[in-house]
Amino acid sequence: AQLVESGGGSVRQGESLKLTCTASGFAISGYDMTWFRQPPEKESEFVASIERTGGDAKYADAVKGRFTVSRDNAKNTLYLEMNSLEFLDTARYYCYAGNSDDYVWGQGTQVTVSL
Predict the structure, then answer these.
(1) Cα-flanking dihedrals φ and ψ of residue 85, to 5°?
(2) Are strands 109-114 and 9-12 parallel, antiparallel or unpaired?
(3) pLDDT tens-digit readout, 86-97
(4) CA 30, CA 108: separation in Å to the nearest integer?
(5) How wide is the angle at C-alpha 58 spanned by C-alphas 54 and 59, nearest 5°?
(6) How far is CA 50 from CA 11, 15, 47, 65, in A?
(7) C-alpha closest to that of 28 among 67, 61, 54, 62
(8) Which burial class, exposed, middle or buried, applies to 64 when counting CB atoms under 10 A from its CB (0-12, 13-18, 19+)?
(9) DSSP letter at 70?
(10) How do residues 8-65 score in pLDDT, each as one tens digit?
């Protein structure tokens, strides 16, 4: 089982990025999916989550209204659309798949936002 994130990069404040997390070796339809991030020299923090059918999404206050989490179970893929990026959004972003029996972490993708 593997999760691979992509779509990170270096942007300026106010710009947008869309992260993708592609699963292999398991079906994400059986998992709630979450994005976490770890800013430089800080602890990891919750960003957004979406339940397995895509019907319920939750966001950290810091990203609410700017980020949108979505999933395509048919493509076995999770997304995070990030708009109006801010300097404080700079972090390594990780996707996570979890259910009552199992969990999988991705290796992360770096997002750097410059002033």
Answers:
(1) -60, 145
(2) parallel
(3) 999 999 999 999
(4) 21
(5) 130
(6) 26, 24, 11, 15
(7) 54
(8) exposed
(9) E
(10) 999 999 999 999 999 999 999 999 999 999 999 999 999 999 999 988 999 999 999 9
